[in-house]
## 1
Amino acid sequence: MMRAKSIHIDSGEYELKILFISPENAKKAVYATALLEKLVTVYPRAKVTVMGKMPGVALFGAAPHTDKMIVVENFAAPDVLKEALRRKWDMLIDAENLPLSVLVRAKEKARSVTPPFNEHPLKIYADMLSLNESDLNPFVWLAPELVRGAEKRLFKKEYVIGVAPFAEDGSFLWEPENFVTLLKRLTYPGNLFPASAIALIGFEKNRIAANQILAELPEWQRVNLVGGLGVLSIAACIGKCRLFLGGDNIMTHMAAVENVATLAINAKDADIIPRGRYTSVMQAENPTVDDVEQAVKDLWHGKLSQK
């Protein structure tokens, strides 16, 4: 089986010039943050040029030592090639395994490969740096103004349930009426999250689907965060949630790595399984509301027991 070409990293104070190529798949990019987190920890004086496609590349905009961001539409474009080939880099980290990486001049190179079936991206990225998966910690970097913006959008509410019930193509993975029933139960007096606000979170393509849930919630409770926000603004809002209910989308993965209590519904067969300290994935294909409510309770009590 073909493996990723790996490099060994050693701690040092060297002011390395690193070219970091983000995965095109936005969900993979969430876990590729672990690569950059490791490198800037080991090389605190490194200067990193990050290259990649939206929306995944946006995750690296506020990362420490990001010296330059290059947002691309086509990696084979002349200006992109010129930028990558204009200098000799100390290190190339290519999480997309691009052909141009063969041409890039670098003292050391680490390139990913297409993973075997069901192998998590963290395994591939750990192999790239000759590390164990446990050595890598995905991380979403947020500028202070983004955190303040999230507080304003959530009206500084202390108790918020984040919901992103969408598949990657924008469709529902679970019936909207099921979500409405579940949310009403969870926020009922005496349940886990009484009187909590409910924030629908997503991109413009999710607006029509989200409205099916928003329309069924009382005005005082609903917060519409669908459309008009960038990836990091969305991540900042997710970080303010106590609980996150999601599907097979980048929002669920961001919640997982931000250590929000995250339940992924109908994501068992997703190409990338959400992974985080307080993350659970529903095993049933079409669970009942009772099943999901119980899964939320198990998740929440499990999180409390880990603190």
## 2
Amino acid sequence: MNEKQLQALIKKMERTAKPKGKPTRWADPTLSATQRDDEAKAEEATTMFKEMKRREF
């Protein structure tokens, strides 16, 4: 392999080694089906914090 071929190979490898920007976010469609509603989460959190206020640690 001569010097020109080596330089061309190095340039080619540098181009492929660069990151291609931010990766896209992958969303699982089944994930949303298994999650609770925001209202249910908020309601549960408020009741939990009320209970925590009543207790002594």
## 3
Amino acid sequence: MNIKMVDLKGQYDKIKTEIDEGIQGVIDTTSFINGPKVQEFTINLSNYLEGVNVVPCANGTDALQIALMALDLKSGDEVIVPAHTYAATAEVIALLKLKPVFVDVNPEDFNIDVSLIEEKISPKTKAIIPVHLYGQCADMELIMSIASKHKLFVVEDTAQAIGAVYTYSDGKKAIAGTIGDIGTTSFFPSKNLGCYGDGGALFVKDNELAKKCKMIANHGQSIKYKHEIVGCNSRLDSIQAAILDVKLKYLDDYSAARQNAAKIYDELLNNIKEIKIPKISQNSTHVYHQYTLVIEESLDRNAMQAFLKEKGIPTMIYYPIPIHKQQAYINECTDKDSFPVTEKLAELVLSLPIHTEITREEQEFVVSSIKEFLKN
């Protein structure tokens, strides 16, 4: 079988006419930068997010950087981040001469362990960046409570969870990325809402803060050649916006397809004692950007991955080297810092193929191959 980790071609074939028309429309107008399609997509995404301001930008990393720039943090200020995440989350903090402060994650849903946040707060702490990992929200109600208590900003990294819905203890619901002061996302092609290049966006509730983010993304100007603040050059081009505007209409369908695929995996894997299937948080829906297993310690996770590769089955390890052990960030940690869950996950996690086009037959082959490995 030709199993793919992400089947962008299969997804494109189903909406080819709409995508091609959108791209051609941009070419016909030759409005390639900040054209009408960018504005149209921005409005439509804002409507999807129930009215939150949307500021498009060049990529998800830029979105995080622009968010922190807009909050006027000073050199040496500390920003709390989960230890189990992609390097970009800490990268933008370091680039702005801020200090990333790592917190271990919850072994059940792999998001930041809220019970460990307060012990990492110091007088220099100014913000928390919860990462909604693999497709479901961190415990935002508790995070926002801690942030309010200590007067901290919250920037949600929603790159893996766009479309997920968080439910508060009182039953109120909110879409991922719209709860904190600023939400950020990536439109990298493999994301649940992905373009055919690079792209990103910020979600901002406060109108004035949204204007500031927009200025920062455009060289610090709201009027051409009038630079009021230091900014950067980070734009979502019109062709990518046209693609995203088409795919946005199908985002809920894409989420449902991923959720259905996850249910099939759950059904097929549930009775395998050597494997822990993903656990869905009580407070969040899961849009399964990744379907990530935790492999029993007695097994050789890397050997399993190699065996599946021989069978033509792609898998991924998110993430094989924790940030606090990366050379670029190793000096940020002290001797007393401890991240046992993150370090264990780096050794044991394995993400299986999951996407909008995957078939049950393909999933059955993946699981039968896993069972074959376990018998050897």
